[in-house]
Amino acid sequence: MRIGFIGLGRMGANMVRRLLKDGHEIVAYNRSPEKTREIATEGAVASFSIGELVGLLPKPRSVWIMVPAGDATEAQIDELLLHLEPGDTIIDGGNTNFHDDVRRHAKVAEKGVRYVDAGVSGGIWGLQIGYCLMVGGDREAVEPLEPVFRSLAPTDGYLHVGGPGAGHYVKMVHNGIEYGLMQAYAEGFEIMHASDYDLDLAGIAGLWNHGSVVRSWLLELAERALQDDRDLTHVKGWVADSGEGRWTVQEAIDHDVPAPVIALSLLTRFRSRQDDSYGAKVLAALRNEFGGHAVKTE
Predict the structure, then answer these.
(1) pTM above 0.85?
(2) Is pLDDT above 70 for 67?
(3) C-beta separation of 226 from 201 below 8 A
(4) 156 pLDDT tier (thresholds 50, 70, 90)
(5) Structure confidence at residue 118 (pLDDT)
(6) What whole-number distance in Å separates Cα of residue 90 and Cα of residue 143?
(7) Partners of 132 in the beta sheet?
(8) Taking the CA of residue 80 as centre, how many other CA atoms within 13 Å lie in the half-sphere pointing to its CB?
(9) Quick one: which of 27, 42, 71, 232 has the fewest CB in 10 Å?
(10) C-alpha distance from residue 13 to each of 6, 153, 160 (Å)
(11) Which residues contact 227 (CB under 8 A, 6 or more apart)?
(12) How many Cα atoms sit within 13 Å of 282 on the Cβ side?
């Protein structure tokens, strides 16, 4: 299948490589032309403008966007709509808010263009093991693209989960769950790191992946991270969030669903970005005021 692909970052370029490996023809475009030229040496067809990309695709055209969610994706869709025709399809593979998907689906439909949202999980390992794809959109828009989805995904790693926005909705909840899982592992390993035992934390992570009920790919990654540096001295404990954890918590609030683990794991990420929490200072000051408890001074 011949499709267009916009966005050749670390994840996007590897997705193109996986598609090329499975025999698809990819017309690639990236805002910085160096990455376009690089992927062209691996078999992709280079294009250096959105208009050129669209012109190199057979009708009906399909274009996958893999750029940061928000304004960047919106700008690419707007530019694509200047060139696409009725029957063409836009696939958004970024971490888009599902509310934006619903709005964009209606927006592009006014021009007769189809819209598919693809939640993608797999990170930098997707090239090797495949990407889990959670796809939303109208059935008639999704079905023609299934050869691409099945090439990107491992066996049983692709599912059309529902209508417009459903793909990114499921990916949003997926990432919220990921927050909670990661936080539980982080707390458990911190307890063991602080213990009086000289524990082989990498060995324990590996051990738990053999028959334990907490075995997972995240534990495999923990084992890798801990193998060379038990104390993780090369890592600063500053944790970002892509936004999907926030959206998951907001969705839980909107539907009166208690989600304390996901909510607290999100708030813990916020705390990681503070060198010295003002809230913690208030707590220390209050303990000193009501109980005379000692405070540490700078």
Answers:
(1) yes
(2) yes
(3) yes
(4) very high
(5) 98
(6) 13
(7) 121
(8) 32
(9) 71
(10) 10, 15, 23
(11) 202
(12) 3
Omega before 147 cis (within 30°)?
no
Report pLDDT for 296.
81
Q: For residue 63, which phi and psi values (nearest 5 degrees)?
A: -130, 125
Q: Residue 294: what pLDDT?
A: 82
The Cα 12–Cα 65 span in angstroms is 9
Both tokens assigned to 15: 């997705």
* 154 close to 130: Cβ distance less than 8 angstroms: yes
Residues 6 or more apart whose Cβ sits within 8 Å of residue 292? none
Q: Which long-range contacts (CB under 8 A, 24 or more apart) does 216-219 make?
A: 216/181, 218/178, 218/181, 218/182, 218/185, 219/185
212 CA to centre of own chain: 27
CA atoms within 13 A on the CB side of 40: 13
Pairing of strands 132-136, 158-162: parallel
Q: Can you give the chain as a three-state secondary structure string?
A: CEEEEECCCHHHHHHHHHHHHCCCEEEEECCCHHHHHHHHCCCCEECCCHHHHHHCCCCCCEEEECCCCCHHHHHHHHHHHCCCCCCCEEEECCCCCHHHHHHHHHHHHCCCCEEEEEEEECHHHHHHHCCEEEEECCHHHHHHHHHHHHHHCCCCCEEEEECCCHHHHHHHHHHHHHHHHHHHHHHHHHHHHHCCCCCCHHHHHHHHCCCCCCCCHHHHHHHHHHHCCCCCCCCCCCCCCCCHHHHHHHHHHHCCCCCHHHHHHHHHHHHHCCCCCHHHHHHHHHHHHHHCCCCCCC
Nearest to 90 by CA among 104, 100, 71: 104
Give the residue from 92, 91, 66 showing the smallest Cα distance to 6: 66
Radius of gyration of the chain (CA): 23
Active site residues: 171, 178
CA distance 174 to 242: 13
